[in-house]
Design goal:
With about 100 residues, the chain is α+β, with helices and mostly antiparallel strands. It has helices at about 15-25, 85-100; strands at about 1-5, 35, 45-50, 55-65, 65-75. The two termini are about 15 Å apart.
Length: about 100
């Protein structure tokens, strides 16, 4: 699986764990990356992977010429009670992602 990174992705502070998780996703090992699908979203399929006890990696899977994982955001100090704000941010950035990578969701 090809790994793509969103232009504004900031992995400072979690570089080692990001590298480990992205390598696991690259080899389709979602279990060791502790990937979970986000539910109750109005559109799109988004996933989160556990970087460490407090941080998560938000990503989506898209198919261009091959299946790609687009790394969107590092969620620091993970709090499950703020998904609505994340969803609004994703909706705002989705057209930019489509334009930049010519992706189909």
């Amino acid at each position: 699986m090809k790994i793509l990174e969103y232009t504004g992705l900031d992995i400072s502070g979690v570089k080692a764990s990001y590298q480990k998780v992205s390598e696991a996703i690259d080899r389709d090992d979602f279990r060791s990356a502790q990937v979970r699908k986000l539910v109750n979203l109005t559109h799109g399929k988004f996933f989160r992977a556990r970087l460490d006890a407090a941080n998560r990696l938000l990503f989506t899977l898209v198919r261009s010429e091959e299946l790609c994982a687009v790394m969107l955001e590092v969620i620091t100090s993970h709090n499950a009670r703020i998904p609505a704000r994340r969803e609004r941010n994703l909706q705002k950035h989705e057209p930019l992602m489509r334009e930049q990578y010519d992706l189909k969701f």
